[in-house]
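Changelog-adjacent note: as of this version, every example in the card shows the full chain rather than a window. The one below runs 169 residues end to end.
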Amino acid sequence: MNPLQSQRLRLRPVALTDVQEVYRHFKADIIEYMYPAVNKNLQATREVIQSMIKKRNAQQEEVYVILKVESLEFIGLAGLHDLESDRPEIGIWTKKAAHGHHYGREAVQLLIERAKQLKLKTVIYPVDYRNLASCKIPQYFGGVVVGERETVTTKDDRVLYIDTYEINL
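Full-length structure tokens:
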């Protein structure tokens, strides 16, 4: 799996060397509208990344670290999940300090290009409708809502209201 790159961002496969940065930035203010819970410690973060690598090796998902091209500053994670399904899923998060710079949209553009290379026809982008900034990402790429306001309770008892967007490639 090769890195993906745009003018500002480089996406490279997630590795165990990323545990510290992921743990440092994947906090309560980031996960407010996301299904995963905050990892309790570095070991839990390591286990999550090991699972991502295992799924990558099984060709079930591709998760990338988002870095700035010029400084290699950590921005977040982006991934193509459930690659064995007929509707693989795009997932993304960026650290708080990176919000408002359209890095999420730029990273999703790279994931869409990768999905096309994989000969995928459609991807889905589930997002809590209250996360307005994140809702704009699939809309930008022509995504249409195919599932609306699905109520999901997370492992840490937060309630999400998920709109699922479908993006045709």
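Structural remarks: The longest strand covers residues 144-153.
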